[in-house]
Amino acid sequence: MLFKIAIKNLLGARLRTFLNVLVTAFSFFLILFISAMYNGMLEHAKQVTMDTEIAGGAYWHPEYDPLDPMTFEDAHSALPGDVQSLVDQKKAFPVLVSQASIYPGGRIMPAIMKGIPPGQNIVNMPTDALSGHDDIAIPVLIGKGMASDTKLNVGDSFTIRWLDTDRTYDADEGIVVHIMDTENFKLDMSHIWIPLKKAQTMLAMEGEATYVTYEKGLPPVQDKGDWIPRDINYLVQDMEAIIAADKPGAQIMYMILLALAAMGIFNAQVLSIFRRGREIGTLMAIGMTRPRVVGLFTLEGGLNAVLAAVATLIFFGPVLWYFGVYGIPLPIDYTEMGMIVAKRLIPVYTIGLVVSTTILVSIIVLIVSYLPSRRIARMKPTDALRGKAVA
Amino acid sequence: MSNKNVVEIKNLLKQFPVGGDYFTALSDINVELEKAEFMGLVGPSGSGKTTLLNIIGGLDSPTEGNVNVLGIELGSSSHNQRAHLRKTKMGFIFQSYNLLPVYSVFENVELPLILNKIDKDERRSMVEQAVESVGLTDKMASRPNMLSGGECQRTAIARAIVHQPALVLADEPTANLDAENSHHIMKILVQLNQELSTSFIFATHDEKIMAYLRRIIHLDDGKITEDENISNPKAGD
């Protein structure tokens, strides 16, 4: 019986129902969209890291610690048997890492110099730009952020000084052959990329490397010497730690969005219910009990939430889909701020997000329908019939 | 309570708290209303007629005294019992109609039957009969905002009588209507009273209504000043 009346009330109220549903649907949309943007940002950061840096995993020289440049000096050796086999099969590529100093425009700047095979196609880096420059002493690939910091352009030359394996300083002229536009700041900031053979020659470390990155889907090798296997889980753990550390922030943001939505819905529901004081009085006069009045208005709220979910799908679904496919262009390049943020951010709608948002918004709508109707149903029917305002 | 009495009120006192004090709205009220009576509570504004009507309707509770309506002692009954009494045995007509604005005439009249869980086919027939009795068959699908004041009040009357209650309480039912509509409404109510033996209690100070009443209880300052039986009402029959 209540259901029939609630349906009649909702459908009969036309504009009022439409506005209530629209407010709720808009709240649905905002929460979904902003949370999905946030998810998209994190997902993108992880994906970019895997795409441009990690691939399927790596074998590290036992001395290598990417967070401690002092280890670079000793972190090099010939590749263990099976690791070398992977490289020979072009299923992996070696990287030789060393410290260097560069002198762009007469300034001195510390840099991490990495030798990488120009022909590799395991990670998404434009390393092929390093090939075919036999006339250049040291062809150098840098990122846009590094180019901006050093004020270097393609064709500019600068001095590179390094310490070779015999602990002898040497220097030569590097020329920027390409500036890459990467979203992974870890490949960009303070990095100069040169051909692996050149690096091995410069450092007197022929046939040696610091780490080897292999393609996705390869099983672990047997003969890896004392090199340490680092799988994807290990290599993304920093990223995941950042995401985990950011979780409370995300939860707070989600709560703020929910609170804003709740306020909007509450406002619409309270206005709607309190304006219907006389209607409530009339329902009581013709024999509806207080619990039924409360039930009726709460049910209307619940149906409101259901309609809002449908309205979100109809009105905002295409918008969510469009952004989900084409993303949203961001006006700022966050790479320079040391953040992996896409230039075109694509929201990620997870089932968990959609389900939890639907449940939470529905609960909020039920609560904000229940509370004011309970209060108004407590009024004396005679006051309600007069349309007396609730204090 | 006598079997033929629909309402029996003894020593009713009604007070409202005002600030730290009490305002006495009704005192020493003793009334008996028999089945099929057509009675009016008449008096100036503030005399307590609406308060008495609300108490009889179980919308308000007495401070002291006994109020027995259709066999239920209202003073000691629960909210749910009073709601049940209103739902099954009472009808209300309000000055400002109190129709639900989002419902059509049919749906407004149907509402008490839905509350009484009457099945759909029977509901339709009862609504059509009630709407026909107030002459609104052609307005069945109209919403209240498409109706005149008289039509709204006729809809409210249909809603009040659709479940064939034993008692209809009408609070200033013609206050918002012109003379022609007022007479039309009263003629309908007289007819219903005669056909269905429904008891009617009006709260009014409208002389047009008084001309139809067969019993008038005069109230002044919350007290009954006169209980007048009229054997030949000026209008109505």
Mean pLDDT of chain A: 87
Radius of gyration of chain B, taken over Cα atoms and rounded to an integer in Å: 17 Å
The helix/strand order of chain A is HHEEHEEEHEEEHEEEHHHHEEHH
* Structural class by sheet pairing and helices of chain A: alpha+beta
Assign an overall shape of chain B: globular
Which regions of chain A contain 5 or more consecutive residues with pLDDT less than 50?
A: none
**What would you say the CATH architecture of chain B is?**
3-Layer(aba) Sandwich
Number of strands of chain B: 10
In terms of DSSP E residues, the strand content of chain A is: 15-25%
Name the quaternary structure.
heterodimer
The portion of residues forming beta strands of chain B comes to: 25-35%
Describe this structure in words.
With 391 residues, chain A is an alpha+beta fold. Chain A has 2 domains: 2-51 and 239-385, no CATH class; 62-226, no CATH class. Helix content of chain A is 50%, strand content 18%. In chain A, the strands form 3 sheets. In chain A, strands 1, 3, 4, 5, 6, 7, 8, 10 and 11 form a 9-stranded mixed sheet that branches. A two-stranded antiparallel ribbon of chain A has the order 2-9. In chain A, helix 2 (15-54) runs antiparallel to helix 10 (351-377). The two termini of chain A are 31 Å apart. The mean pLDDT of chain A is 87. In chain B, 33% of the residues lie in helices and 29% in strands. Chain B has a single domain (36-63, 78-229), classed as Rossmann fold (3-Layer(aba) Sandwich). In chain B, strand 9 (215-220) and strand 10 form a beta hairpin. Chain B has helices at 49-56, 79-89, 105-115, 120-133, 149-161, 179-196, 207-210, and strands spanning 5-18, 21-34, 38-42, 64-69, 72-73, 90-93, 167-171, 199-204, 215-220, 223-229. By secondary structure, chain B is α/β, with parallel strands linked by helices. Chain B has a 6-stranded mixed sheet. Chain B has a 4-stranded antiparallel sheet with strand order 2-1-4-5, covered by helices on one side. The chains are: A alpha+beta (391), B alpha/beta (237). The A-B interface holds A 1, 4-5, 8-9, 12-14, 278-279, 281-282, 284-290, 380-382, 385 and B 54, 57, 59-60, 79-80, 83-88, 90, 92, 94, 98, 100-103, 107, 111-112, 114-117, 159.
